[in-house]
């Protein structure tokens, strides 16, 4: 008995085109220009739009041919609907410097080459965005679950896959886990080492070798060997992917205070506008041209059409997402960092009408120039800290408050993590644990109170 089933299957060409459109979303401006140049080399149909005088021969075309050609060119020319603000002032590049960090880009690159499913890649993006420059996961899976909507039992296996990427130890939640990940990656099997790290790591951190020997029953010489092996692992695996040189950041989006609010403009400098070549469009309708040549031209026309539309969609999405961010974070644009509010990708995705993964991709490697400086667009999606009363604060605001406290502290008697937590609670009604203070202090590269003590 024959059974008929109706299935939907994307053609290889369409799948390739969709992959290209998705890839264009996450490219930086420089990478976009390079992608356009490469596509123009591979597709002769594409050319840069330029103001050209009409050739004398064109005047001899029939009115119908002219109309058909104009319709074709209009169909395949870039839209300017989403590129306002071309008369803006030149940017102040002195305020656009940053340190370049490549760890998260390195992880994304590895995920693209690994056996992550499409869903796992979206989940992994949430995890990667919460990995600091030292390589540590800076918040718990429960917190990521609240922000992303993915349950912990989905996040946990993806985190373990991320932890198998390079550098060894990345994605760990604390030093102990970081050491264990590096140990497992090395392929060694040492029961004594495993016993000490798993059960007596606190004694190791206090250099209490005799205590470990007493607790385990192993000889002190053997404990010393374990001690040296532990010290051989990198406690900050992500730092080797940090570039300490200063680079200039050219914003992808400009946000400027206007008379009626904030004006948003995309930075399209050096991004060429594309159209289809009139010469090849004419060949496609020329009766003298062979069928094989026409099929080649029409195939390239389809590719060119998709590429142009994909770029237009990229720019449209970038503009709309930037507009949504400004609407959600209006108080930040008005008043500065202390007014930054918690925001998740889902909020912007629903506002714009796209998938969360699209918002994640379009904000990757993109920068926004604001009245308060230039920020990576991912910056506008901070996680939240609950207050005793009122709206929750973003983690960025809490860290800014911490940095100010340390800046103003008595250098002879610096604030401890417990004291910082107490001040945040008493002055700002922010409930934050000592351990969280220590975590944020590490992110801010602030040393412990003992190391900050100034002795005359």
Which labels suit this protein?
10 strands, 20 helices, alpha+beta, two-stranded antiparallel ribbon, 3 domains, four-stranded mixed beta sheet, 456 residues, disordered N terminus, globular, Arc Repressor Mutant, subunit A
Give the % helix: 40-55%
> How would you sum up the major sheet?
4 strands, mixed
Sketch the topology as an H/E string, one letter per element.
HHEHEHHHHHHHHEEEEHHHHHEEEEHHHH
Lateral arrangement of strands in the main beta sheet: 5-4-7-8
| Overall residue-averaged pLDDT value | 80
Q: Give the helix/strand class.
A: alpha+beta
Separation of the first and last Cα atoms: 94 Å
What's the alpha carbon Rg, rounded to whole Å? 28 Å
Q: What's the total helix number?
A: 20
Unreliable segments of 5+ consecutive residues: 1-11, 74-101, 243-247
Describe this structure in words.
This protein is of the alpha+beta class. It folds into three domains: 16-49 and 251-376, no CATH class; 101-244, no CATH class; 384-452, Arc Repressor Mutant, subunit A, CATH 1.10.10.60. 52% of the residues lie in helices and 9% in strands. The chain contains 20 helices and ten strands. The protein has helices at 12-26, 29-42, 63-75, 103-113, 118-128, 141-148, 152-162, 175-186, 191-205, 209-216, 220-232, 278-283, 291-328, 330-335, 345-352, 356-362, 395-408, 417-428, 434-443, 449-452; strands spanning 46-48, 97-101, 242-248, 253-258, 261-266, 274-276, 367-370, 373-376, 384-385, 393-394. The strands form four sheets. The protein has a four-stranded mixed β-sheet, with helices on one face. Strands 1-6 form a two-stranded antiparallel ribbon. Helix 1 crosses helix 16 (356-362).
